[in-house]
Amino acid sequence: MPNTTLENSPNAVLNKSVAERYMHLPCPENKVKATYIWIDGTGENVRAKTRTVDFVPKKPEELPVWNYDGSSTYQAEGTNSDTYLCPVAIYNDPFNGGNHKLVMCDTYKYNKKPTETNHRHTCLQAMEAAKDTKPWFGIEQEYTLLDMDMRPLGWPKNGFPGPQGPYYCGVGANKVYARDIVESHYSACLYAGINIAGTNAEVMPAQWEYQVGPCEGISIGDELWVSRYILHRVAEDFGVIVTFDPKPIEGDWNGAGAHTNFSTKAMREDGGIIEIEKAIDKLSRNHLRHIQAYDPKGGKDNERRLTGRHETSSIHDFSAGVANRGASIRIPRGCAEDKKGYLEDRRPSSNCDPYAVCEALVRTCILDE
Ligand code: ADP
Ligand code: MN
Ligand code: MN
Ligand code: MN
């Protein structure tokens, strides 16, 4: 039987050993490729472009403010299109190596106001106000790999794989697809300097997860967005597509989330379970606000995923419980036993903006807004 997987993927069929010849050319000293990364007008896709700088940047403030054509990213009118890119965080570039850098940016309109999808701006204000409580976040990023025909990678072209069961944390060629991409991404994130905490195969075949964190404050958003850029870029090298859609396949297949684990200093100290319970009480009274912040379409994407089935809670109800994977909020068993630790908010969608999610958690649980 012919193997049809990836036959239409131009990036997969290019000969990578030819590219190696050029990637290993020596680079002049003090010439650095800086790849500026930003969130486009969809609020869920990343864009990037590269420029040369003639010094090795150590802090984002040292890098020039740049601009781009916002009319080509759903962020501006063609007649007034210049949109500003402001560097906010720097990472080592795992694709170019050497002194080359990845530069996370936030975006501003011609009038210096944040663009509609720049949720970092207000998130940073909330994080500054809550700084003394030392908020930590750890996000479990789930995603699905697709072939060029937009079907999950490795799935039969004219049918479906066997039912869910053997795939979660699976091992073996008939259980998991494209571990090469997963491991390459993991190594690339470590090289970049991202606090990647782990990875595992998910319940639906071709679905995977990695975790970023714990990170304190705004850095969770910066690191998660750059980890997503790295994932798209690694998969591009293999000719495979990454989707963060929260329900890529309808029917009896798990969706994808971005469980957000959250704690303050007080929650992490002895007896902190009291603080965790206080936070859950506040969350119970702000369910709608959180659902609106937890996907890029104000709750519409999560409507497809938060059905009350497939290890989710219903989008319409708030619930919390120890070790309960069918609740909005789960207290991990270990934290209940230790009477301290963190809570897990299971509602954020896989394509959420972590700046919006973490801002909502801080404003509800810490700032009492
Ligand atoms: P699950 O059991 O839900 O699959 P994971 O092991 O995938 O959990 O992810 C747990 C996440 O919680 C990790 O990203 C980890 O860094 C993060 N985490 C651990 N401790 C804390 C804490 N005190 N505050 C916030 N996040 C934490
Ligand atoms: Mn997990
Ligand atoms: Mn998971
Ligand atoms: Mn989880």
From TrEMBL:
<dbReference type="InterPro" id="IPR036651">
    <property type="entry name" value="Gln_synt_N_sf"/>
</dbReference>
<keyword id="KW-0436">Ligase</keyword>
<dbReference type="InterPro" id="IPR008146">
    <property type="entry name" value="Gln_synth_cat_dom"/>
</dbReference>
<dbReference type="InterPro" id="IPR008147">
    <property type="entry name" value="Gln_synt_N"/>
</dbReference>
<dbReference type="Pfam" id="PF03951">
    <property type="entry name" value="Gln-synt_N"/>
</dbReference>
<feature type="domain" description="GS beta-grasp">
    <location>
        <begin position="30"/>
        <end position="112"/>
    </location>
</feature>
<keyword id="KW-0547">Nucleotide-binding</keyword>
<dbReference type="GO" id="GO:0004356">
    <property type="term" value="F:glutamine synthetase activity"/>
</dbReference>
<keyword id="KW-0067">ATP-binding</keyword>
<dbReference type="GO" id="GO:0005524">
    <property type="term" value="F:ATP binding"/>
</dbReference>
<keyword id="KW-0963">Cytoplasm</keyword>
<dbReference type="GO" id="GO:0005737">
    <property type="term" value="C:cytoplasm"/>
</dbReference>
<feature type="domain" description="GS catalytic">
    <location>
        <begin position="119"/>
        <end position="369"/>
    </location>
</feature>
<dbReference type="InterPro" id="IPR050292">
    <property type="entry name" value="Glutamine_Synthetase"/>
</dbReference>
<comment type="similarity">
    <text>Belongs to the glutamine synthetase family.</text>
</comment>
<protein>
    <recommendedName>
        <fullName>Glutamine synthetase</fullName>
        <ecNumber>6.3.1.2</ecNumber>
    </recommendedName>
</protein>
<dbReference type="GO" id="GO:0006542">
    <property type="term" value="P:glutamine biosynthetic process"/>
</dbReference>
<dbReference type="Pfam" id="PF00120">
    <property type="entry name" value="Gln-synt_C"/>
</dbReference>
<dbReference type="InterPro" id="IPR027302">
    <property type="entry name" value="Gln_synth_N_conserv_site"/>
</dbReference>
<dbReference type="InterPro" id="IPR027303">
    <property type="entry name" value="Gln_synth_gly_rich_site"/>
</dbReference>
<dbReference type="InterPro" id="IPR014746">
    <property type="entry name" value="Gln_synth/guanido_kin_cat_dom"/>
</dbReference>
